[in-house]
Structures are given as C-alpha cells and as structure tokens.
Design a protein that fits this description.
The chain is α/β, with parallel strands linked by helices and 275 residues long. The protein has helices at residues 28-37, 63-74, 94-101, 108-116, 144-149, 174-181, 197-205, 257-273; strands at 6-7, 13-15, 20-21, 51-57, 81-88, 124-130, 135-141, 155-160, 184-192, 208-214, 221-227. The strands form 2 sheets. It has an 8-stranded mixed sheet, sandwiched between helices. A 3-stranded antiparallel sheet has the order 1-2-3, with no helix packed on it. The chain binds S-adenosylmethionine.
C-alpha cells in the first residue's frame, strides 16, 4: 500500500508517520532550487559533462527529481545523461506526486510522465527512463542503509533530504552518512537543509568540507559541502562510471530477450554519453 500523505488546509504535504512536513514552508520548488540544485552548484557544475549522477536520500514527492530534470531540460550545456538515484522506504501514491507538482508549471508536465510510470514499486531497485533514456531515475525502494549498501557507483552530487534528524534519525545516523560517503569522489558536492551539529560532525569525519550558506526563509542557514578528505580514500577498483571517458568493448553472450535488452541499453548509453 502507498504511504498516505496528509494535506493541510493550506495545501502543504505532511507525513503522519514522521510528524513532519515534506518540504520547507517556502515551497518545494524554491527549496529544490535554492538548497539542493544551488547547494551542489547546479546546473553550472554539470555543463559539458558526458553524464551526471545525483544520489538522494528520501524521494518523497519527487520534487527534487522533477526540479533537476526541469533544470537539465532547460540547460543547453546539459550532460548527455542525467541519472538520479533516490532511496525511499515509503513510496507515496501517484495521485500525491501529481498533487504536489500541480501548481508548478515547470514541473507539472514532468510529474505526469513520472506518475505514468509509477507502478509496482515493491521493495528493491526500479529503473524509470524519460526523454528517450537521457534521464534515468533509479528508485531504491527500502530502508536507507541496506539500499545504499546494495549499490556502488560514483555520485557527482549528494542530496540529503530526510525528515528532521530528531524525527527521522535513521536518515542522518553516522552509519548512514558513512555509507553515503562511499559514493563520493573527490569534488562531489552535497547539499541539505539541516545544519544539525551531529550531521555536520558526522559528514566532516567522513571527509566533507562544509560551509553554512544562507537558507531559504524562515530558515537562516542551509548546508553545503564538498568531498575533499585530507587522506586518500581507499578504492580497490574503479567505480562504475569513472572509466566513462574511455569506454571499453563489450561482448554480450546470449541473444535472447535479456541479452538483446542489455545490448540495446549499452548502445544507448554509449551514444548518449558521447553527444
Ligand atoms: C523530506 S521527505 C523527501 C522529500 C523529497 N526529496 C522531495 O523532493 O519530495 C523525506 C523522505 O524520506 C523517506 N524516509 C524516511 N526514513 C527513511 C528510511 N529509513 N529509509 C528510506 N527512506 C526514508 C520518507 O518516507 C520521505 O519520503
């Protein structure tokens, strides 16, 4: 069953499970743009890149994803491929995704496309593709720790968007933040709306250099960071995606449905990242 969303009389989405609101009082799109896109230096940071990967904790109503997709669409210097990976334990109903975006003309048509693919979200990984496969959404449905531990790739931007650390400690625990840091490459930027001391300390201990930035009123601050550890992080082999500048050859063995799908997907990926 989908996670119920409580809509206040003012039209703000709230979670009864966490007794918290899904977005800043200043509005979801403003938060997505100021705190998250702005906090990670986007869209400027992705200009001219072959691909860009954003990893988010907390998909919620999908507004951060929709805002990133809209920014990608509007940017003539966009990367060939935008891959947004997000972890969500309690997916909401498609109707709530649509309702959350309906007053945002930039996002509402994209929300329609998202809602059309929003089905069968059982625990596990789900790949949704938009704009001819140039925008990929990997939804990791399940609790944050095991979902992050099940994957390994280099993220270019990290969005930390759980509910408040007091009400939703799993999303901000030192263990979760340590697991998240495994996805950072040198230079990966992170953004979040909380400046909680425990969160800052845990991120700093993982090698993020942090700064407080002006928040979205009524919040005074938000947090930005860059992965720049004073030590050389241990990586035993290249991360998937790191060797993208020099793609290798692939042989797909087996020409059944699965093999054909893999070959088509690899060919599409190769053509996109060389645009
Ligand atoms: C503030 S909302 C995210 C808003 C979202 N980024 C957006 O753009 O609409 C936080 C989300 O984290 C999810 N969440 C909370 N605890 C979680 C956990 N332990 N594992 C995975 N997801 C969790 C909640 O279900 C909720 O959807």
């Amino acid at each position: 069953m989908s996670e119920p969303v409580d809509w206040t009389s003012a039209g703000a989405p709230r979670s009864a499970r966490f007794d918290d609101r899904y977005h800043s009082e200043a509005g979801a799109l403003a938060q997505a743009r100021h705190v998250f896109l702005g906090g990670c230096g986007l869209p400027g940071a992705w200009a001219g890149k072959a691909q860009w990967r954003i990893l988010e904790t907390g998909f919620g109503l999908g507004l951060n994803f929709l805002a990133a997709w809209a920014a990608w669409r509007a940017d003539p210097a966009r990367p060939g491929l935008l891959h947004f990976v997000s972890v969500e334990a309690y997916p909401v109903a498609a109707a709530d995704l649509l309702r959350a975006a309906r007053d945002e003309p930039d996002l509402a048509p994209l929300a329609q496309q998202l809602a059309a693919q929003w089905q069968g979200l059982l625990p596990g990984l789900h790949r949704l593709a938009f704009d001819g496969g140039r925008v990929l959404l990997t939804l990791c449905v399940g609790p944050v720790q095991p979902m992050l531990r099940a994957q390994r790739f280099a993220a270019d931007s990290l969005y930390l968007d759980g509910f408040s650390p007091q009400r939703n400690p799993d999303m901000w625990s030192p263990e979760t933040l340590r697991t998240l840091a495994r996805f950072a490459r040198r230079g990966t930027r992170l953004a979040t709306w909380t400046i909680a001391r425990a969160v800052r300390d845990a991120l700093a201990s993982q090698g993020f250099v942090l700064e407080k930035a002006p928040g979205l009123p009524p919040k005074r601050d938000c947090l930005r960071g860059v992965f720049a550890p004073a030590w050389e992080p241990r990586r035993h082999e290249p991360w998937p995606g790191e060797a993208v500048a020099v793609p290798g050859d692939c042989a797909v063995i087996g020409a059944g449905l699965a093999g054909a799908a893999v070959a088509a997907s690899l060919a599409l990926r190769l053509s996109l990242i060389h645009i």
